[in-house]
Amino acid sequence: MEAIIQASLVKSYTYTEYRNIVSSLLKEGKSTGNEQSEALTHYSELNETRMNRLEKTIKITDEFTEKLKALKGEYLWLVISEGWCGDAAQLVPIFHKMAELSPRIDFKIVLRDDNNDLMNLFLTNGARSIPKLLILDKNTLEVLGDFGPRPQGAKQLILDYKAEHGVVDETAKTNLQLWYLHDKGLSTQKEVMDLMTTLELTAVQIPQD
Fold first, then answer.
1. Tens-digit pLDDT profile for residues 197-207
2. Which fold has domain 2-205?
């Protein structure tokens, strides 16, 4: 696994680089990823607007800001994403803003379709669902935990809709985006910070040689 992670890091981007890649491709009428279609380009355009808005409006709570600034470990947050993914557009700006608050978090993004070996290690019910936030020990590259592709409330919304209608259609996707809008990133912040708090407590409890 370490070799796969190292290979992916060679192809990783900063948040700004990731945004620039998505924007540059859109100017050519393209999206990120191996597959190209009008639909994926359209989703990428919508996501560009969403991410621009979220960068201006998302606020990390005072509680989580304090916890991020107080982290003891050294972490690498590695996100698997693509520009056309609606969930990624909602979550990646939150991950970025959280990481910015801690000097102990390095933040990198890799494109799913350019990193198949990495993606295959973190499937969700057998699917290559994104985004995936991988929390690594910065020094050893050990995977300490992961989050994604959705916070629990969003996940449940889609499960309930599919159980009732049998498919995830455009109405379901619209409902999902409305859920994200009303949630204001709070569920994602809480679930990621719960994971980070557990990792910090676990590290403290490990006996030192």
1. 999 998 766 54
2. Glutaredoxin (3.40.30)
